[in-house]
């Protein structure tokens, strides 16, 4: 086990050093002999908060030419001028120092994040102050994209309901971070899962529906639906525009028909 641990530490060190220029290595021994410095595990982190309070674990490692027999403490700073996240509102840090145990090259620290005040994405910039690889990192704290769709809607689907009258429709959290559910959308006890993805426009989100059970035909049995192309949700108007194709078990189709859902709260 000790040999395995030493191997893992050595491998991490080799991978870390491989990122730096040849001038940092001793020409005779090929061992890194540049300045020791600390870095974060990544130059960016994205935290999608599903719960009121969540914790992100951030790794810190040393780029060094040897392992120390003593614990080493490294200190980073919060770059408040570059950050939009507010301490005590969007996040808390128990400490801005990290102690790396003797004989180790890495450790981690927790970042506690809060959902309550998170209307828009915020960023937290942390830095060890140097210009080297991953010595500064940015943590983006945000709600899941799906959260913008949650609420109550007026569903208008003339092809299915036979008129332009609006039906009340709720949209709730789905089973995974990118999904929302429209419960009982076309039939009681049958939910339609909507997949939400970015479009590249901050005010427009793509809405897709993969093949799934939706309603039952008295003549043909179980009918499935699928969107032939992405629909959209417009954040400025609160309107979902989506086309659904309807398929019966033998592969035939009732065609694809558009619907709209307008947010009412």
- Mean pLDDT, nearest integer? 86
CATH H-level superfamily title of the largest domain: hypothetical protein (bacova_03559)
| Cα gyration radius (Å) | 26 Å
Which CATH class of the largest domain applies here?
Answer: Mainly Beta
- What is the CATH topology assignment of the largest domain? Immunoglobulin-like
> How many individual helices?
2
Strand content range: over 45%
Question: How far is the N terminus from the C terminus?
Answer: 58 Å
Describe this structure in words.
- This protein is mainly beta and 265 residues long.
- It folds into two domains: 2-14 and 36-143, hypothetical protein (bacova_03559) (Immunoglobulin-like, Sandwich); 146-263, Lipocalin.
- Helix content is 8%, strand content 48%.
- It contains two helices and 20 strands.
- Strands 11-12-13-14-15-18-19-20 form an eight-stranded antiparallel beta barrel. It has a four-stranded antiparallel β-sheet with strand order 1-3-8-6, covered by helices on one side. Strands 2-10-9-5 form a four-stranded mixed β-sheet, with no helix packed on it.
- A hairpin with a 5-residue loop joins strand 14 (190-198) and strand 15.
What is the fold's blueprint, element by element?
Blueprint: H1 2-17, E1 37-40, E2 44-48, E3 53-63, E4 72-75, E5 77-78, E6 91-93, E7 97-100, E8 106-114, E9 122-127, E10 136-142, E11 151-156, H2 158-161, E12 167-173, E13 179-187, E14 190-198, E15 204-208, E16 212-217, E17 221-226, E18 231-234, E19 239-247, E20 253-263
Parallel strand pairs: 2-10
Antiparallel strand pairs: 1-3, 3-8, 4-7, 5-9, 6-8, 9-10, 11-12, 11-20, 12-13, 13-14, 14-15, 15-18, 16-17, 17-19, 18-19, 19-20
